[in-house]
Every structure is written in structure tokens, then in C-alpha cells.
């Protein structure tokens, strides 16, 4: 009941995707309360919250970043509950939100498919066909690097055929990480082609770059710089960008600590394709990365998912 009231409260000021995000992150807490026989929030203590954190860490097989976000959402929930006298007003202060060192954050950062869908839902609803929407949809659906997105011209986007063509043009100011070996066509879902078409028609600045080319992503001054594209990616992946709550956002930092890098979007996209049973050779060709590198650095889906995938193949033998 408390969760339902909290979500109804949030729905008056937050987007549907934000409310959904709160629900996902609170569901484990509701489950734990049921298992522990806690049906009245007034019974909660700081010791209970510590026990829940340990249970979630062990039972949920979460990395530190995911655990951090779930505990942060619980803190927001308990702060609201205190405001309506459902729990002691200071109980939320007893929620321990784990800190994540920069090196751990860099190593573990992967944008989850669930979060990517929430971002796309928000952008589709409130910023349809904006440069942010077009860039994020392209990065997530193709898994390309920022440098590849930076290299695209209008003529490289085949909207009627639903694909893009990556071309290495070092003499004209744009390069691919693997040079000529990085050149390839990449299929697009029709919905992404539609977003790109509407972005080009409605929001793209009609300018050329210093080489007389027509870039896909532009500013008033020409081709959008890759650093600008990185900033856009960081911005749209921050939970606070879509009105969600995230820890440390009020500390005056210029970048939300919960935002993720373009490479984390790429890693998440690759993991999503692999988790969706797309053959590894197809993912390797599409993302321009070797099988060995995929196994070592990109394939982040859980061992449980891998086991079920293997079981599915073996059951058919």
C-alpha cells in the first residue's frame, strides 16, 4: 500500500518512465518485507535497513552501481514516508547508499537495457526527434562509437532502406577507430530511421562542415564536435535529466555522478544484443569488435542468462 501511495504521489510531478523506474527499484524491498513478515512501515528500524541492504547485495547479484541506485531510491521513498508520518522522519538518514570509487565506476558502467528503454520512452514523449533523441536512439540501436556517429553525413543515412554506412575519411576530417576495417553498413530498425528522418527535417541545422560535407549531427557552426556529442550522451543518461532522483546531484558537480559514458551505452547495447540470442559473429561484425574482445570486455550479461541460453540450444539437440 505504501509503495502504491508513493508512486501515485510521484506520478503527479514525474514522467511515466520515472514512476516505472521507482517501481522497479522498490519491488525488491517490498518482496523482502513480505519475506520478513513486515507489513507495517512503523516497525522498520535502522538495523532492518542494514539487513535489507546486505540481503539485496547478496541475493540480487548486483554490482555496486545498481545497488547504489536501488538504495538511493529506497532513501527517497522513506523520506516521503516520513513526511506523511508513516515512518520516523529521520529514518531515511539511516539508509546506507554505497559509494563507488571512480575506477570501479569506469570498470563496471554498463547501461542496462531497462534504463535505455526508459530513456527512449522519455525522449520519445518529451523531446521527440531532438538531437538528443536522434543521437541516443542511434547509439543504443547500433552500438557504434561516438567517433563513428561523428563521421556520419546525410548521404551515409539510407532511411528508406533502414541502414547507415560508416566510411573512413581521414583526409576530410573524420575517422573510424579501425580505419578502413571499420567501414561497414549497419541495419536500423524502422522506428530509428523514422526518428532520424524527423530529426533531419525538424531540428538539424542545415549547414556544411569545413570540407563542404553535410554532417548528420550539426550545430550552427558546422559538424557537431565529438566532445559535444559525448556531453549529450552523458546528459540524457542522467536519471535527473528525466526527473528521477539520484544521489549527489545537489552537490554542485557539473556532471551527474549517475550519468554514463558513450562507451557504457555501447557496452550496454552489445550486451543487450548478446542477451537477446543474436549470434556472437553477427554482433562482432555489427559492432566491429573481435570475439575475444567481446568475451573479455563487453559480454556483461549474467552467468544465469548465459546458462539459460546454453540450455535452450542444448534442449534442441
Account of the 3D structure:
A 3-stranded antiparallel sheet has the order 1-2-3, with no helix packed on it. The termini are far apart. The model is unreliable at 300-309 (pLDDT under 50). The protein is mostly helical and 317 residues long. The chain has helices at 2-11, 16-35, 46-59, 64-83, 102-108, 113-126, 131-142, 146-151, 190-202, 226-237, 262-275, 280-287, 291-298, 303-315, and strands spanning 157-158, 163-166, 184-187, 218-219, 222-223.
Strand order of the largest sheet: 1-2-3
- What proportion of the residues form beta strands (DSSP E)? under 5%
- Shape verdict: elongated
Largest sheet: 3 strands, antiparallel
Low-confidence regions: 300-309
- Average pLDDT, all residues: 83
Span from first to last CA?
48 Å
**Order of secondary-structure elements:** HHHHHHHHEEEHEEHHHHH
Output the radius of gyration: 22 Å
Helix percent reads 40-55%
Number of strands: 5
Map the helices and strands.
Blueprint (H helix, E strand, L loop, with lengths): L1 H10 L4 H20 L10 H14 L4 H20 L18 H7 L4 H14 L4 H12 L3 H6 L5 E2 L4 E4 L17 E4 L2 H13 L15 E2 L2 E2 L2 H12 L24 H14 L4 H8 L3 H8 L4 H13 L2
Antiparallel strand pairs: 1-2, 2-3, 4-5
Helix pairs in contact: 1-2, 2-4, 2-6, 6-7, 7-9, 7-11
